Amino acid sequence: MGRIVKFWRNVDPFSLRSRLTIGIATVSAVGLGSVAIWTSWQMQQILIVSHKQRIEQIAERLPRDVKLYSEMLPVETALPKAIDNLTAANTFLWVKDSSGIITAKSANFNIPADRSTATALTSLTQMPVQAQVYEMNGHYFILCGGPLPVRGKVLGQLFVAQDISQEQKMFLAVVRSLGIASLVSLLAITGAIAIYIQRSLQPLRQISQLAGTISADDLGQARLYLHHTPTEVRELVSTCNMMLDRLSEAWEQQRQFVSNVSHELRTPLTIVRGYLQSVLRRETNLTPPQREALETAASEAERTIRLLQDLLDLARADSGYLHFCIESCVLNDLVEEVVGMAQQYSDRLITIEAETYPIAVQADYNRLKQVLLNLIDNAVKYSDPSTPILLKLNQQKEKVIIQVCDQGYGIPLQHQSRIFERFYRVDEARTRFTGGCGLGLSIVKMFVEGMGGSVTVRSKLSEGSVFTVILPIQLSK
Question: What is the pTM of this model?
Answer without folding.
Answer: 0.48
